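REQUEST
  id: r-88c1
  op: predict_structure
  target: Threonine aspartase 1
  payload:
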Amino acid sequence: MHENCIVVHAGAGYHSKHKETEYIQLCSDACLRAAAILTQDNSKFRSINAACEAVAFLEDNHLSNAGYGSNLTLDGSVECDAGVMCGSCLRFAAVGSLSCIKNPILVAGHLLSQQIMDPFSRLGRVFPSLLVGKGALDYAVNAAGFSRIQEVEMISPSSLASWKKYKNWIDHVDKDTCHSMSLHHVSSKKARFMTPLDTVGAVCVDSFGRVASAISSGGVAMKSPGRLGQACIYSAGSWAECSPEEDGKVTESVGVITSGTGEQLIRTQLAQKCAQRVINDTLPVPLAVEASLSTDFLNSRFLNGEPDQRFAGVAGCLWRSLPFVRKRRSSEACVEIFFGHTTQSMAVAYFVDNTMKIPKSFISRKPLGRRHLVGAFSHRLLSC
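RESPONSE
  id: r-88c1
  status: 200
  body:
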């Protein structure tokens, strides 16, 4: 067994410098919440539970665009998306356009655990991997036992104030174009503030190298009701994958979580493509991430005809066991934490249990003129 590893992000977009300390502390605390689960939970779902716990913690904070404080739709309602993936069995579960549930990610986590334990329901019906709207709410309350809350309880004072401000801007736009396209008719400065992309996510690797990824989002500000973002779409918002186990051991695993413009991330399937480059490429991890952002996103043919503004952020880790050397008398592993973004900034934190005393948490800011920014950290892990 090796040390546990956690990576979290609080979104790629624009993070106010006035709130930088708050974002840094929030991400650090989320890492510690996940670390506690990985240490105390002895179940086979511990990496899933830890990732969901970290994201649920982020959902509860008004700084994030997930759960409480989510961006509001054009009509002023709350609709959340969340998804979680298990790297060991490669199963994925998600909810979309969900309201009146405090922590959407926990519903997705419950859906995933049911899918793993009992992939077929009665009469052989396939267990769902994605539920949306009323179906997701009914499942959360009636099947999973979550409490239904009033929608107003999910609206923070700041999200309501932002909605009123954005609505006023849009109301001054030509009524014939006042739908989701309205963002293209406001000034670029206003558009920057109308599109906070602070989706939140977590990747957790347990002491056996088993990985899970989880992600949650309230979606883009002033979105059309019913719109789904990348958080609930397979291979677009998150990815987790382990090598087939040999003698009960994982030799390598990778987890990726994304943030950015949902429609662009869906069309490029960025989470899976980034993960595959990182785990399969002969390039060093930072160069593999850079290649993914450049080739799979910024220059992707699937975004032909899109505006020049292409927003994406990725974060995650690559875990690999190292060849056994008898003279060391212990097995070793290496974990490489990475992040990259095309947006102005990205909030990231990571923690390697027993190797670090406290999480490393920071706001990465892209210099002017750069198309993207990539960073990585490497840690060698001794067996516990």
